[in-house]
Give the backbone structure.
Amino acid sequence: MKATILPNDISVVYSHRPDVAREYLTIDVPNGWDDVKKICKKVLSYDNRKFTFTGWNSDTLQCYFARSLVGGIEPVATFVK
């Protein structure tokens, strides 16, 4: 058997907070800011939903991406050619 590394995939933990109407993706960043700076300006797609960077915790070495559950709020723009 053979395994292939997927170049654009990253391991995440999904959670949601209905009380604040947000969904979250948590990503381990074992190298701290060196890992965070590579992804903090990216938009992550998870089950066809877009998540944007909200911050990171240097004590737990995790960074967070979030998405609003309120309809019509999408803080993502697309470049037009």
Remarks:
- The radius of gyration is 14 Å.
- The chain has a mean pLDDT of 88.
- The beta strands are 13-17, 22-28, 43-46, 49-57, 62-68.
- The first helix runs from residue 33 to 39.
